[in-house]
Amino acid sequence: MQPELPTGTPPLRGDERRREVAQRRVEELRDLINTHDYRYYVLDSPEVTDAEYDALVRELRQLETEFPELVTPDSPTQRVGGRPGELFAPVEHRLPMRSLDNAFSDEELAAWAARVERRIGAGADYVCELKIDGLAVSLLYENGVLVRAATRGDGFVGEDITANVRTVRSVPMRLRGGQVPRVLEVRGEIYLPVKAFERLNQELTGRGERPFANPRNGAAGSIRQKDPAVTASRPLRLWCYALGFAEGVAFSRHSESLAWLERMGLPVNPELKKVRTLKQVQAFCAHWQEHRHDVDYEIDGAVVKVDALELQRELGETSKAPRWAIAFKFPPEERTTRVKSIAVNTGRTGKVTPFAVLEPVRVSGATVTYATLHNEEEVRRRDVREGDTVIVRRAGEVIPEVVGPVPSKRPPDARPWRFPKKCPSCGTKLVREEGEADWRCPNRVGCPSQAVEWLFHFASRGAMDIEHLGYVTGTQLLERGWVKDPADVFFLTAEQLGQLPNFGEKSVHNLLSAIEAARHRPLWRLLVGLNIRHVGPFAARLLTQAFPSMDALRQASLDELLTVQGVGPRIARSLHGWLEEPENVRLIEKLRRAGVQLREEAPAREPDASGALAGRTVVITGELETMSREEATHAAEAAGARVTSSVSKSTSFVVVGANPGATKYDKAQALGIETVDEQEFLRRLGTRRTVH
To answer: Could you tell me which residue ranges the BRCT domain spans (predicted)?
Structure first.
């Protein structure tokens, strides 16, 4: 059947004329369909019936079938049916996707506001937003067209989920604004509406499949499907909550950037509010705590942000989270159940944590069987006993915890629980350092529980990313004595692995390939995997930028480690002490013999050898007027420079903005390193921006 062409079309003169007319109609249909998608999925205000909408889609699909050369990646027909890419390839975020610190009470919220005021003075405006309980994503648009979507991952590297996100109807394939930036990166939350989640679970249960524990897991599981058509069958939605990067576009306030994203056709949650005082912030949180079920999506709190972007830059960040924002977590829903027994677990750092084994109970949409009791002091304070009926909640709606017992239902024979004196895994006498609440097993090398937890952490996606090395395989390797510490993993042979249960030729090949790939991971990943207390991914990146080899880290003094911006005394002391212990020195040497990468071979971004700053090493300190610190770093790297966070003899020059770090500036002066202002920095970049 021939597609119908618009009324009034001139007589067709061959294939070329017909194609020209078809192209005009295809463009018209795409605009119509995108407009109707926007009105239906974003504005919730449809203008046509489902039948009329379906007719437009059918007509577009017919034309694209006849003229396949007219099919474009952003066509509405391409939301479903494209082949998925590599599942799921790593994606490095242009700017890190930070997590937020939490406040669980008005007092903690007030303490955060007081810290903000101490740093920037009184009078800051705030933006209050709902905290959506879904899957955080990053969307990248180039010239207005969606080209990539990624999960948050560890904040620095996520997973490519583009093929699946294209199926989410509220995610525009093409932006609507008249003047779109060449590059736009936006952050958002993909979620499942509550009723849709309930229907999905009914369908899964009806087919004999396992239901999702809660809407957040439902959203994440729906996105992480091998077949995009499965994702398309799930009614996922998107709310955008932040602008990551927009080339050539600048805003003075976070609220302005959200309004601009709305004009670009991106869905922004309407339940946000600009306020002037802490009292208004607390009123917003209190209102939504009471009305959290009035919306058709799960919320577990509110997010409060300083509105002015200049003040955000002034407040800066810690090694884990920005200082200019906080998540106010709502008190979790609570249920009662019975404690069957109390046990303890020894974790990878030696910390011994008591937990309750419970009769299964549903709490906030998830089945809870185990719940943490935190430490000995908390068990004693709450007086939790075996056999007790207890109140259970999910702390931060994630980790199940026992709030306390119901005394009226306590069995008469229930006795106070006593913390064990020895490690349940290896029998070593437990120790507790002065000032700490936690007991620890000091047998770091010989404790089976610590060994398997460490090995699992070492192989995890956030560390060395050794796929196929999980708990079961790790336990088997440890039990056979083939692995005593993570370095031994790199000496495993095919002959050994072939002896493991259910390990065929393909399994052996896959694990050995993953181990080989791990030898070449960046140094910061190794630092995370080495299980050094307080050293997480963000701190590890900062440290390896300043000291780009394991030898440089070992030679660094405590004072030198303390100069790394974003690395506090606790992290620096922990790392310095760890690097001085003989058994850890031996571990590093074993890793060296195994061929594991112990230095950063190249900067995170490949420098332009022909750039204006090629071969130069640059340090940036203080606040710049025309760009953020991150933008300045990207600009310098794009010009061929290597940007580091600490000043050394190899530093070419230091860019000094307003309120520079005294340590960097003083060290540059002491070493005779050149310092330049922002105007000179821009001149060397070849940029024509003006600093007022």
So the answer is: 608-692
